[in-house]
Design brief:
By secondary structure, the protein is of the alpha+beta class. The chain has one domain: Roll (Nuclear Transport Factor 2, Chain: A), CATH 3.10.450.50. It is built from four helices and five strands. A five-stranded antiparallel sheet has the order 1-5-4-3-2. The longest helix is centred in the N-terminal third of the chain and has 15 residues. It is globular. The chain starts with a helix and ends with a helix.
Length: 156
């Protein structure tokens, strides 16, 4: 990360890099606090979630997949992310898939919706294709913006 940060800064970009285990609410809180203190808001979020890199989603039991995905959104009653209008550009060793997203997050009867655009970067290796980078660009939000903060407080 530091090499990428230096390269971007050399090109004039302002960069904040933070290593964060999204399964640890304290680390997520630290990440958000650092980001909001420095920038005041989040426009683009790059998420490279850990977990078993060898697990293929189509080979996982549904309960295992839900448990793994729910680490991203601790404390919520429900979260649904609908991706649509995908387009892909495929090369010999890599690919880019772009989709629109509408993500709804529910807590105690409240709802917070985010709309935007995902860019997934994939890499091909001996075992097949793997997502190695995801970027979310938020275009709009609707509803209770404090809902995600309350969800984080719920798991403490």
């Amino acid at each position: 990360m530091e090499t990428a940060k230096r390269d971007l800064e050399r090109r004039g970009a302002e960069v904040l890099t933070v290593v964060c285990d999204v399964g640890d609410p304290d680390q997520v809180e630290r990440l958000m606090r650092q980001t909001l203190t420095r920038y005041g808001r989040v426009d683009i979020l790059v998420n490279n979630v850990g977990g078993s890199r060898n697990a293929r989603i189509w080979e996982m039991a549904a309960d295992d997949w839900v448990a793994r995905a729910s680490r991203l959104f601790p404390g919520l009653d429900a979260s649904q992310h609908c991706l649509f209008n995908p387009s892909a550009s495929i090369g010999p060793d890599g690919a880019t898939c772009e989709t629109y997203v509408r993500a709804e997050h529910a807590l105690d009867g409240g709802l917070y919706t985010i709309g935007g655009h995902y860019t997934h970067r994939l890499q091909r290796d001996a075992d097949g294709w793997r997502i190695n980078h995801v970027t979310l660009r938020v275009a709009w939000t609707q509803g209770d913006a404090e809902l995600l903060d309350r969800a984080r407080q719920r798991v403490r």
